[in-house]
Design brief:
127 residues, alpha+beta, five-stranded antiparallel β-sheet, 5 strands, disordered C terminus
């Protein structure tokens, strides 16, 4: 079952300029991260979803990303936003198209636990 768009907490308006010079406003909207109701057999860990809507595009569909907290869900939404923009049919017509990542932050890869200088290296080929 599709998840609904929630109250918009963040949005970024953009201008689309078509090849014929006609301009119209489009917007990417981020909904309020919402706790999902657990299904039978689900993990007891909480799961939040954060909806994203591309308003004024050919597809005003709602896309959903997930996270283990509201912050994680919003970060994941910010990570998906430029991918959605880049793959939209009007990507090259947007006034933000020249900005790296359409103006959204370029997030580093997921952090890795720091190495423990006291840990021994395990080599599976040694007996």
């Amino acid at each position: 079952m599709p998840l609904p768009m929630t109250d918009v907490i963040l949005s970024q308006p953009m201008t689309r300029t078509r090849v014929d010079g006609v301009q119209n406003e489009v917007e990417i909207r981020f909904g309020t991260p919402t706790l999902m109701a657990p299904e039978p057999g689900d993990s007891p860990d909480p799961v939040y979803y954060c909806p994203i809507q591309l308003a004024g595009f050919q597809d005003d569909g709602i896309y959903v990303v997930y996270g283990g907290s509201t912050v994680e869900a919003v970060i994941n939404a910010f990570t998906l936003a430029p991918v959605l923009l880049r793959t939209s049919l009007i990507a090259k017509d947007l006034d933000w198209a020249e900005l790296p990542n359409y103006g959204f932050p370029i997030l580093p890869p997921m952090p890795v636990e720091p190495e423990d200088p006291h840990a021994k290296e395990i080599n599976p080929t040694e007996g």
